[in-house]
Each structure stands twice: as structure tokens, then as C-alpha cells.
Amino acid sequence: MLRILSERKRQIEAEGFDVAHDDEHRGGEMFSAALCYQSNADFGLPLTVDGVPVGWPWGREWWKPKTPERDLVRAGALYLAEAERLKRLGEPTVHIDRLVDRIAARLDAMAVTPPQS
Fold this sequence. Notes:
The protein has 117 residues and is mostly helical. The protein has one domain (2-112). 62% of the residues lie in helices and 0% in strands. It is built from five helices and no strands.
């Protein structure tokens, strides 16, 4: 969970994606972006002719896949940002909180399991 929280902090401080910025994304864009990164980590996503996965909510310049582990960290931070946004609106976030917890558990398991060759 610390890696997800650290990435969320980086997104706010380095990228400027603060609460006001997040609140502008009312159409589920952060959730969609998180799902793309999570799916890319799990399966590797086919890309459109624009070079982004189907469902990617923003421009090509914002699609920055890395390793499966790094993509999961990004997914967790984006889910967390969406959950925080919904909580500010008084909306339920149980489904997103569970996704964040599952990703955190997967990252923990990746940290203790050596890569297979």
C-alpha cells in the first residue's frame, strides 16, 4: 500500500494532479485509466491505431505503460484518486477500495516472490 500512496503523492506533487484537478474528472476517467493500467499489467493490452488501449480516457501523451509492477502501482494510485473524489461527493467507494486492496496485496506478493526465468 505504501507504493500506491507514494505514487499518489507523486501525482499530486510532481504532476499537479491535486484535489481540484481530480474533481474535474466526473466521467469516470480516472477509473478507466486505472483499469487500463491494471489490465495492461495483467494481460498486455492491444493498442488502437492512436497507440492507446481501448477505453483510455486521455490523449496518447498520457499513456505511459512501464513494467507490470509499475503499471499496478499507477492503477492503484488512480483508483485511490477516484475513490477520494467519490468520497468528497458522499458516494460509496467500497468497490474501488477493494480494488486498491487487491492491487496492494498483489504488489506485496510481487515484492517477496523472485521473478521466474
